């Protein structure tokens, strides 16, 4: 399954975009949103090693679509994305009843303290500096999901 716009043969087009195919396992699903393919790969590998199912998106718009199809249990997103930022993505998700309680970890390489405040104001559950070590992200996701009650909208 893939949320990104990459043509990997497993995506299905809706409105000329490629979005998630819902194929859930018993594992908690984490959506990783980053325009850097290497960053997504490293986070995917680390999260899967901890037993999480992982879905990917390259942009905030793709992540929004993915959230409405796959209903992830948590999301990790870069703040600086093409188009809408991770901050704008967080605000959009907090404004929708189906995703208002979604645990969101926002990541950035920026050391600007103003970015931390923007992330907090947008409703991020956790804000982390990007590092080569995925440990802090894994720890944040584990902590958020250990306390979380899944909120899944009913499909009609």
Structure described in brief:
36% of the residues lie in helices and 19% in strands. The chain is α/β, with parallel strands linked by helices and 156 residues long.
Q: Give me the number of helical elements.
A: 5
User: What is the helix/strand order?
Assistant: EEEHEHEHEHEH
For the CA atoms, what is the radius of gyration?
Answer: 14 Å
Terminal CA distance reads 23 Å
Category from helices, strands and their pairing: alpha/beta
Structural write-up:
This protein is of the alpha/beta class and 156 residues long. Helix content is 36%, strand content 19%. The chain is built from five helices and seven strands, in the order E-E-E-H-E-H-E-H-E-H-E-H. Strand 1 (12-14) and strand 2 (17-19) form a beta hairpin. Helix 2 runs parallel beside helix 3 (86-94). The longest helix is centred in the first third of the chain and has 13 residues, at 37-49. Mean pLDDT is 83; it is low at 1-19 and 151-156.
What would the keywords be for this entry?
alpha/beta, two-stranded antiparallel ribbon, 7 strands, single chain, 5-stranded parallel β-sheet, 36% helix
Q: What order do the helices and strands come in, and which of them pair?
A:
Layout: E1 12-14, E2 17-19, E3 29-33, H1 37-49, E4 53-57, H2 60-70, E5 74-78, H3 86-94, E6 104-108, H4 113-122, E7 126-129, H5 135-147
Helix pairs in contact: 2-3
């Amino acid at each position: 399954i893939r949320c990104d716009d990459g043509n990997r043969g497993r995506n299905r087009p809706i409105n000329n975009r490629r979005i998630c195919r819902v194929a859930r396992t018993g594992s908690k699903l984490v959506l990783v949103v980053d325009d850097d393919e290497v960053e997504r790969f490293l986070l995917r590998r680390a999260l899967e090693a901890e037993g999480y199912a992982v879905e990917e998106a390259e942009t905030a718009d793709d992540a929004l679509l993915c959230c409405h199809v796959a209903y992830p249990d948590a999301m990790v997103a870069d703040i600086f994305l093409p188009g809408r930022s991770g901050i704008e993505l967080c605000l959009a998700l907090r404004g929708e009843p189906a995703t208002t309680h979604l645990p969101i970890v926002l990541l950035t390489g920026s050391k600007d303290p103003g970015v931390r405040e923007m992330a907090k104001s947008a409703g991020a559950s956790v804000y982390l500096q990007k590092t080569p070590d995925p440990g802090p992200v894994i720890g944040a996701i584990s902590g958020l999901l250990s306390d979380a009650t899944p909120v899944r909208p009913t499909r009609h």
